[in-house]
């Protein structure tokens, strides 16, 4: 009887341990995603780069992030980014907005589609997106080379 | 003649002390301190609400908009430093501060001088105390203290250089 009770207790302890390890894993993921959260420097200026992720150093060097902002339309978040080509040649690329909840967890992970965009020499363009649902509190703009 | 020479340092001291005090000339949208060269917004609550330091629609964004619109003809508005706020409060207090009398408190004195909508609350300064704290100036009692930057406070834009 006593042996059974010990077995149950060790089972509960083991389950708790596994659960806490699982949660630690989740929070690590959230921590990584948090680097893409909207943030502000000590002067209160928005740190634009943290909202934008480039998959290529070439594109990162060629595209200047002029402005990134977000606003709430009711309970839905809208995001906008203004990009400027530093290149004198035509610059084709793709972009996608990813959305995160207040805990930094991605909403509809990977569901957004990549959209093509072309910046002509030294051109500036503004792109916008609307969050898929009211849970979205942060966003990240991803930019990659065209297929 | 000798007496005159002895009195001269004292006179100079009095003159220099009085020069450090603000001497405001009120214009349509600004108050110019002729002694320090600082130009304060005449309206001490231009945003019409308290603003946060980090976040959407914050102090930085407001100052940026103010400068983009060339408020009162200037594009170099900024958040006052701790020392500039301290000098303003000291001046307001020098006009007869009595903790027991509300009409002598700094925000009241500043209103009486001609500033508009001076709030009985804390104002941002641009002086940082720590990664999470910024000095604020309380215009009710004149106390200047570091506060958590996550809280909202009032903003009183200033321009010019007070080192003159």
Write the layout of secondary structure elements.
The complex is a heterodimer of chains A (147) and B (164).
Chain A: H1 2-34, E1 52-54, H2 57-62, E2 63-73, E3 76-85, E4 91-100, E5 106-107, E6 115-119, E7 124-130, E8 138-144
Chain B: H1 2-20, E1 24-26, E2 30-33, E3 39-41, H2 59-68, H3 82-94, H4 106-113, E4 122-130, E5 133-138, E6 144-148, E7 158-159
Antiparallel strand pairs in B: 1-2, 2-3, 3-7, 4-5, 5-6
Helix pairs in contact in B: 3-4
Describe the structure using short key phrases.
heterodimer; A: 147 residues; alpha+beta; Immunoglobulin-like; five-stranded mixed β-sheet; three-stranded antiparallel β-sheet; 2 helices; 27% helix; B: 164 residues; four-stranded antiparallel β-sheet; 30% helix; 20% strand; globular
Task: Offer a concise description of the structure.
The complex is a heterodimer of chains A (147) and B (164). Chain A is α+β, with helices and mostly antiparallel strands and 147 residues long. Chain A has helices at residues 2-34, 57-62; strands spanning 52-54, 63-73, 76-85, 91-100, 106-107, 115-119, 124-130, 138-144.
């Amino acid at each position: 009887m006593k042996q059974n009770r010990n077995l149950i207790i060790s089972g509960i302890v083991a389950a708790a341990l596994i659960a806490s390890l699982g949660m630690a894993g989740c929070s690590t993921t959230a921590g990584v995603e948090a680097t893409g959260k909207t943030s502000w420097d000590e002067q209160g200026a928005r740190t634009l780069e943290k909202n934008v992720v480039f998959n290529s150093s070439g594109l990162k060097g060629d595209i200047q992030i002029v402005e990134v902002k977000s606003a709430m339309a009711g309970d839905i978040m809208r995001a906008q980014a203004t990009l400027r080509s530093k290149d004198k040649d035509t610059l084709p690329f793709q972009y996608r907005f990813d959305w995160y909840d207040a805990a930094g967890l991605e909403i509809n992970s990977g569901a957004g589609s990549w959209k093509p965009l072309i910046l002509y020499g030294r051109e500036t363009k503004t792109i916008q997106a609307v969050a898929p649902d009211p849970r979205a509190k942060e966003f990240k703009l991803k930019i990659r080379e065209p297929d | 003649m000798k007496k005159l020479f002895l009195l001269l340092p004292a006179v100079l001291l009095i003159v220099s002390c009085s020069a450090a005090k603000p001497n405001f000339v009120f214009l349509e949208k600004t108050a110019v301190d002729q002694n320090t060269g600082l130009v304060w917004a005449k309206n001490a609550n231009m945003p019409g609400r308290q603003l946060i330091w980090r976040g959407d629609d914050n102090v930085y964004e407001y100052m940026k908009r103010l400068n983009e619109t060339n408020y009162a003809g200037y594009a170099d508005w900024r958040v006052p430093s701790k020392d500039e706020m301290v000098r303003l409060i000291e001046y307001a207090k020098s006009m007869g501060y009595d903790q027991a009398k509300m009409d002598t408190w700094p925000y009241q004195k500043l209103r009486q001088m001609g500033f508009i909508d001076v709030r009985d609350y804390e104002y941002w300064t641009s002086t940082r105390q720590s990664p999470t704290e910024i000095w604020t100036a309380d215009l009710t009692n004149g106390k200047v203290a570091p506060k958590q930057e996550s809280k909202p406070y009032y903003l009183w834009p200033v321009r010019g250089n007070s080192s003159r």
